[in-house]
Amino acid sequence: MHYFTRLTRAEQTVAGSLATGFGRIQVCPPRFRLGRAFDLRLSRFAFGPTLTFYRTTAYFRSIRHPLAISAGFRSPETICPPWRLYDRVFIASHRTNSIIDRQCGTLDVAANWRRMQLMRSKRMRTTLKPTVLYTGILRPLTLGPFLYIAILLAPFSAWAALGDTAASVLTDQARMKGTLHSSDQQTYVVHEIQTPAGTKVREYVSPQGAVFAVAWEGQFQPDLHQLMGPYYQQAKDAAAQQVRHGHGPMLIQTDGLVVESAGSQRNIHGRAYIPQMLPKGVEAREIQ
Amino acid sequence: MSNLMRVFLRLLGLGAAVAAFWMMSACGSGNNTAVTGITVSCSPPALVSTQISSCNAIVTGTGSFDSTVTWATSFGSISSTGLFTAPTVTSATNATITATSTETNSIKGTATITIAPTTAAENAQPIVVDAGPTVNGSPVGYVNGAFVSINVCVPGTSSCQTIDHVLVDTGSEGLILLSGTGTAGGELTLSLPQANASDGNPLADCSVFEDGYTWGPVQTADIAIAGEKASSVPIHVLGQSGFAPAPSSCSSQTTGPEEDNISSLLANGILGVGLFQQDCGLACDPTVSPTPPAPNYFYYSCSGSSCNPIQVPVAQQVSNPVIFFPTDNNGVQIQLPAIADAGASDVSGTLIFGIGTQTNNTLGSATVYNTTDTGTITTTFNGGSYPGSFIDSGSNGTFFLNTSLTGIPQCSGNISAFYCPSSEQFLTATNQGTNGSSNSVTFAINNANTLFNNNGGTFTAFDNLGGPSSLSPGGSNVFDWGLTFFFGKNVYTGIETAPGAGNSYFAY
User: How far is Cα B33 from Cα B20, in angstroms, rounded to an integer?
Assistant: First the structure.
C-alpha cells in the first residue's frame, strides 16, 4: 500500500564532489499519519571502489506544519552492499497521531551513495518486507536555476549554521572533517561533530529545522565564523565594545544573541544561541 | 684541562730543577740523599662546590732524593697529580690537602682549601599588582594583574632589553611580547631572530584565549628573570609592523578581538608559566599529526602576507620559559600577601622559580591537586560539580557559574563582567584534583561597583572580585580561580615533565 502518491525526484545538490553530495527528496503524502517509521535505503552506484559513507542526516520540513524527522544516524562505515538499510526515519510531530493532509516536505541526505530507496516499514523494528515507496538516483541538479545557483554557491559561501537550516550542519561537518553523532531530545535534535583535534561542536536544531544554538569545547575552538554565520560579526562587534579591566571570560548578551567563552588555553568552552529561536519549553541550560 | 696542563708543566719544571740538582750533587759529594721538606700550595685556595683546585708540592732535600709525593685530602677527592675537586657542601667546609713524600713517609706538607656552598640561582622575582603599563601618560587601568619585569636578549649576545609589566599567567604557556614598533604600543624594540617553519618560511603563532586571540611571528630570545636564564627560547611577538596579518582561519576561532596592541592586551607581554611545556604541545607536532588538524589551526608558515597552517615539533614551539632554566625548571610559585577587604594598591609579591629545588620553594604543607591532561580540576559548589575548573593568575577575578546558579546579580554597564551583590557574599567551594586530594576553599564576592570606587577608585588589587563564567545555566559552568585566589596564599604550578606526560599539578 503506497502512502505516497507523489514522490518526486531525488536531486543531488552538488555540495563539493560527487563523493560528498547532497540528495534531496521531496515527499507529498496524501494522508499521512505521524508517528510512523520509514526506512531510508541506499545503494552505491555501480562504479568505483568501496566508498566510505561518512555522513547523513535527514530533515522533513513541512510547508504548513512543523514536522521533524529523527533518525538513528549512523557513524562512518564502509560497506558495499547492493542495497542496505541506512537509516530508519521516524516522522514525528508535537501533535502525535494527528493526521495531516497532503503535506509536502523534503528529505535531505548527504552521501556518496548514488541510488536510494525510501520505504515504509510497518513498525520501527519490523522484519517484514517493507513497501518500496521510492527508488531514485541522486543525480546532478535539475532544480530551478535560482535554487541551483544558491546551492551551488553554498559550499563556497556557506558561512552558515546558527540561525540557518539544518542542512548547514553537514557543511560544518565537512569543513571540520569531523565525525557526526546525532540524538533526538524530543523537542530538538543535537548534532555533535568531533574534529580530528578533539574539539567537540554541538549544533541544536529546532523542529522547524533551524539551528538555534551551537556549543563547543576543547583545546581548540572551532571556526566560529562558519558556525555562527551572520551572527559572528554581531558578536565580534559587541565584544569590541566591551570595556576591559583585565583578562577573563568573554560574555556577550545583545538583542537576539548570547555568546559565551571561558576557560584556560587548552580547555575552552563556549556557546552561542538565539534566545528567540529556542523551541517552546527548551531552556538555555540544555545548551552545553 | 688547562689546570692539568699547568700542573704537568710545573711538575716538568720541578723535575728539571731536581735533575740539575742531582747531576750537580752527583759530581760532588757521593750518595747521601734525603728529603728534607715539602711545601704545598693550592690554587685557588678557596672555591665552591664542584670546582677544581690545582695543588703543587715543592719537595726539598739533599742528594739525589726522590721528589715524588702522594696526595691525600681530609675531605673531597684529589687526583694523583694534585687536582682537588670540591664536593657539594651546604656550609663552608675546610679540606686539608696533604702531600707525603714517597721516599720518606714521615715528611709531609699540607695546605688548606676552603669550600663554600654553590651560590644558588636567585630564583625570586618581585611581582607588583598595579594598574598596568602606561599608555599616553596614564596606566591602562588593570585590576588584579600580577606583573613582573623581564630581560630579553638576542641569543648569545649582550644586546638586551628590559621589559616591564609582563603579566604572570599560570593559565597559558610561553612568553608573549608586544612589539614597540609601529602602533602596537609595547616595549620590545630589540630585533630578535625570526624562527622558520619546516618549509623555510617565517613561522607565526595563533593562540586563542577565552577573550580574544594573539597573532604574530615566532622569534628566539635569551630570557633572564631574577637570576634565572633561559637560552634561545621560542617566543611569540605581537603587533610587529610589516608582518603578515592574521589569516581568517586564525581570527575566526574566536569572536574576541586580536590582542595586538596595548589597549587590548593591557600589558607589555604575557609570561605564560602554566602547567604545560609548550603553548600548543603534541596536537601541533608533526609526529602526532602530520598535517594541521583542520579547522583547528595554531601555527602558520608565512610567505609574504600569505600564511598557511603548518605543524611544528614541540621543541620549536613557543615554550614555557621555565623549562629552559638549567635549574629551578619544574614549576613556579606565586606568593601574594593577604590584602584588606576594601582592596589595596600596588601590592608586592614574589614569583619564585622551581618547586622543592631550593629552601624558598619547598611545597611544605601545601596540598597537591593533580590536573587532567587539559589542565583542569573539579570544583564543587552548592551541590553542583564543575569539572573544567582551573587556577589562573592571568584571570583578574573569581569567575564562576552565573546569577541563576549563584543568586548573585551581575553588574551592569562597563563592569558587566563582574558580580554586584548587595552585600559581600562569603562562599565555600571544594577543589578536587585527579589524585583525589580535596579541600574546601572559602572565598568572598563583593560588589564590583563598590570595590572600584573604594579609596577614590585607586585600588588595583581585590581578593573579593568575581564575575560569572556564563550568562545562564548550561554554559561555561566552571570556576576560573583568578588572581583573587592567590592573595594570602603560596600557589604552586607544577609543569608536566614532558609534552603530554599528564603529570602537571596545582598546589596550595
Answer: 15
Class of residue A141 by CB neighbours under 10 A (exposed 0-12, middle 13-18, buried 19+): middle
B388 inside 8 A of chain A by CB: yes
Q: Does B211 contact A249 at a Cβ distance shorter than 8 Å? A: yes
Please report the DSSP string for B157-169 in residue order: SS-EEEEEEEEEE
Asked if B67 contacts B59 with a C-beta cutoff of 8 angstroms, the reply is: yes
CA distance B485 to chain A (A): 14
Contact by Cβ (8 Å): B334, B393: yes
- Determine which of A17-26, A52-61, B98-107, B141-150 has the lowest per-residue pLDDT on average: A52-61
Mutation for testing the B interface, residue in A244, A253, A257, A271 having most B CBs under 10 Å: A244
Peptide bond into B247 cis (omega under 30): no
Contact B396 A248 (CB under 8 A): yes
CB pairs under 8 A between A and B: 209
Judge whether B321 and B296 are in contact, CB under 8 Å: no
Where do we find the cell 571502489?
A: A49
Contact B394/A at CB under 8 A = yes
Q: Establish if A202 touches chain B: CB-CB under 8 angstroms.
A: no
Q: Which residue of B has its CA nearest to A226?
A: B252
Choose the mutation target among B210, B248, B284, B378 for the interface with A, i.e. most A CBs under 10 Å: B210
The rounded distance, in Å, linking the Cα atoms of A280 and A185 is: 13
CA distance B241 to B250: 18
Facing residue for B283 by CB, picked from A219, A223, A283? A219
Kind of pairing between the strands at B384-391 and B479-481: parallel
Cβ pair A221, B254 in contact under 8 A:
yes
Does B459 lie at the interface with A, CB-CB under 8 angstroms?
no
Consecutive H or E run containing A111: strand A105-111
Peptide bond between residue B44 and the one before it cis (omega within 30 degrees of 0): yes
Do residue B392 and residue A222 have CB atoms under 8 angstroms apart? no
Confidence at B371, pLDDT banded by 50, 70, 90: very high
Does B432 score more than 70 pLDDT?
Answer: yes
Burial of B114 (0-12, 13-18, 19+ CB in 10 A): middle
B445 vs B457: CA distance, rounded Å: 18
- The residue type of A14 is V
Grid cell of B96 as nine digits:
686539608
Give the separation between CA A55 and CA A22, rounded to whole angstroms: 10
d(CA B222, CA B153) in angstroms, rounded, equals 5
- Which A residues, 260 through 279, put their C-beta within 8 Å of a C-beta on chain B? 260-272
CB atoms < 10 A from the CB of B472, how many?
Answer: 21
pLDDT for residue B109? 93
Q: Select from A241, A265, A268 the residue whose CB has the most chain B CBs within 10 Å, as the one to mutate to test that interface.
A: A265
Angle at B209 between CA B207 and CA B214, to 5 degrees: 40
Dump pLDDT digits (tens) for A190-213: 888 888 888 888 888 877 677 889
**Helix, strand, or coil (residue B507):** strand
- Name chain B contacts of A273, Cβ cutoff 8 Å: none
**B138 neighbors B145 (Cβ within 8 angstroms):** no
